[in-house]
Specification:
The chain is of the alpha/beta class. The chain has a single domain, classed as Alpha-Beta Barrel (TIM Barrel), CATH 3.20.20. It is 41% helix and 15% strand. The protein contains 10 helices and 8 strands. Strands 7-6-5-4-3-2-1-8 form an 8-stranded parallel β-sheet. It is globular, with a radius of gyration of 17 Å. The relative contact order is 0.15. Belongs to the triosephosphate isomerase family.
C-alpha cells in the first residue's frame, strides 16, 4: 500500500456554538481551501455544527468528522448518533474510543471494536484513540497497554481497502491530554510510537500523536519515528493556532518528502 500523507487534525470537543464553528471553517477554507501540500487536514466539530461545517468545507481536501457514533445503524438508542446519520451530516471521519469517552461514558475495548466496524461498514474512516494512564506509565507498561487496546479494536480486520487501510490510530496518553496534561518528552512518545509503527504502521492509514501538542513542540513531535501526524486539542481551537500547525506540517512534509 502507498504511504499516506501527514495528517494534522483537531477535535473541538464540547466547545464552539454553530456560529463560532462555521466562522472557523470559513476562515480555514479561505486560507487552505486548495489543501496543504503534503498534509491531510481535518476538523471534528461538535455534532450540532457538523452539517454546517461540512457544508462550508464541502467535498474538498479538508475533511470533517464526528466525535462519537453508535455501532448500530438505527434504533431505540436515545441520545445517540449513528454512523449513517453522521455521514448524512457530512462526516468522513469517526473519532472512536477517546479516553474521556472511556472514563466518563463507559466506552470499552468491546464497544470501540464494534464502532470501528460500523464506521468501516459505511465507508467512513475510523480514528481510533488509545493511550495509557500515568500509573501505567510509571510501572513501565505503556507499550503493552497501548498495543493491547489497538489489537482489541482492530484485530481480525482485513488488510487493504475497506479494512485496515482505512483506519487512523491516534496515540493520546492520558497523562498528556487536557488542560492539566503534562507535555511529553520525545523519548516517551518514541517508545510507544515505535511499537505502534512496528506492529501497525504498514497496515493502517497513519498513526498520529495527540496530547499537549502545541505550536512550540509540534515540529519536534513530528520528527519522532513512527509519528505520522498530529491530533490536536486546545492549541488548534483558535484558527491561528491550527493554521500554524498546518504550516509546521507542511514544512515537515517538504523536508522529509
Amino acid at each position: 500500500m502507498s504511504r499516506p500523507e501527514l495528517w494534522i487534525g483537531t477535535s473541538f470537543k464540547m466547545t464552539k456554538t454553530r456560529v463560532q464553528a462555521v466562522a472557523y471553517a470559513r476562515r480555514l477554507l479561505a486560507e487552505v481551501g486548495a489543501g496543504v501540500p503534503g498534509v491531510t487536514a481535518f476538523v471534528i466539530p461538535p455534532a450540532t455544527a457538523l452539517a454546517e461545517v461540512s457544508a462550508v468545507l464541502g467535498a474538498g481536501p479538508v475533511l470533517t468528522g464526528v466525535q462519537n457514533a453508535h455501532w448500530e445503524d438505527e434504533g431505540a438508542w436515545t441520545g445517540e448518533l449513528s454512523v449513517p446519520q453522521a455521514a448524512d451530516a457530512g462526516a468522513r471521519i469517526v473519532e472512536i474510543g477517546h479516553s474521556e469517552r472511556r472514563a466518563h461514558f463507559g466506552e470499552t475495548d468491546a464497544t470501540v471494536r464494534r464502532k470501528v466496524r460500523a464506521a468501516l461498514r459505511h465507508g467512513l474512516t475510523p480514528l481510533v484513540c488509545c493511550g495509557e494512564s500515568a500509573e501505567v506509565l510509571a510501572r513501565g507498561g505503556s507499550v503493552d497497554h497501548v498495543l493491547g487496546q489497538v489489537e482489541s479494536a482492530l484485530g481480525g480486520l482485513p488488510s487493504g481497502p475497506g479494512g485496515l487501510e482505512e483506519v487512523l490510530v491516534a496515540y493520546e496518553p492520558i497523562w498528556a491530554i487536557g488542560e492539566h496534561g503534562r507535555e511529553p518528552r520525545p523519548e516517551e512518545v518514541a517508545a510507544v510510537h515505535g511499537a505502534l509503527a512496528a506492529e501497525w504502521g504498514d497496515r493502517v492509514r497513519a498513526v498520529l500523536y495527540g496530547g499537549s501538542v502545541t505550536t512550540g513542540n509540534a515540529a519536534d513531535l513530528l520528527r519522532v519515528p513512527g509519528v505520522g501526524g498530529l491530533f490536536v486539542g486546545r492549541s488548534a481551537w483558535e484558527i491561528e493556532g491550527y493554521l500554524d500547525l498546518l504550516a509546521t506540517g507542511r514544512r515537515h512534509a517538504d523536508a522529509t518528502g
